Amino acid sequence: MGSSSAAPNLEDVPSMDLMTELLRRFKCSAKPDKRLILIGPPGSGKGTQSPIIKDEYCLCHLATGDMLRAAVAAKTPLGIKAKEAMEKGELVSDDLVVGIIDEAMKKPSCQKGFILDGFPRTVVQAQKLDQMLEKQGLKVDKVLNFAIDDSILEERITGRWIHPSSGRSYHTKFAPPKVSGVDDVTGEPLIQRKDDTAAVLKSRLDAFHKQTEPVIDYYTKKGIVANLHAEKPPKEVTVEVEKVLSS
């Protein structure tokens, strides 16, 4: 059992893959370290930008929800604790989540830094994260705030329609189907995700503002928040991000 999760035997890895990885590491070694936090409401475009930033700066992407699930599945000591909490229907404690981030940061892929997404959601979490990094002589370099007006988000999200069997997505305003309400290819009806309705969005946004505004204030006082114009087209947001991170 033990060896199945180990790294593959390098003799078996195709030369092209080895060369590509070596070149990537070589290119990465010249990049400055970056520890970034992405904050933004649902639909603000964080998911579009984070893979671009990750590749450009050779960072690892730490999505706390995925990391918790992975720790539980791998039965790490922290994962076992997290599972106990979840089974009791309790929230996983901040200390546990920070511990899992701490563990993840030791991976080779996180050598140049990380992108944290979905955490911290509260000021207490932000303080605990800072303390953990401080112990290692590190700090958060930049907080990218995907600032966007609620009304724009509402238009973006409530306009989304999906063709369930293929996953093709449409938008009533930005990418409408040829015939309203039906898939271009099959002619089958489109559906709207439960999360994409105005009522659900409003409650998610209310929670986001209540929880997250104080976190943005906390980091603003440290002088590390960059406010992005997240309503712009993705390519323009990417340019903004690059400006912020190269300064």
TrEMBL record:
Annotated CDD domains: ADK
PANTHER family in alphabetical order: NUCLEOTIDE KINASE
InterPro entries assigned to the protein according to its UniProt record, in alphabetical order: Adenyl_kin_sub, Adenylat/UMP-CMP_kin, Adenylat_kinase_CS, Adenylate_kinase_lid-dom, P-loop_NTPase
SUPFAM superfamilies cross-referenced by the UniProt entry: P-loop containing nucleoside triphosphate hydrolases
Keyword Nucleotide-binding: yes
One annotated GO molecular function: ATP binding
Subunit structure: Monomer.
A Pfam family per the record: ADK
PROSITE patterns from the UniProt entry: ADENYLATE_KINASE
Swiss-Prot/TrEMBL keywords: Kinase, Nucleotide-binding, Transferase
Major enzyme class: transferase
Domain Adenylate kinase active site lid, first and last residues per copy: 160-195
Protein name: adenylate kinase
Gene3D superfamilies associated with the record: P-loop containing nucleotide triphosphate hydrolases
Species this protein is from: Arachis hypogaea
Swiss-Prot/TrEMBL catalytic activity: AMP + ATP = 2 ADP
Record function comment: Catalyzes the reversible transfer of the terminal phosphate group between ATP and AMP. Plays an important role in cellular energy homeostasis and in adenine nucleotide metabolism.
Family listed: Belongs to the adenylate kinase family.
HAMAP family assigned to the protein according to its UniProt record, in alphabetical order: Adenylate_kinase_Adk (MF_00235)
EC number(s) on file: 2.7.4.3
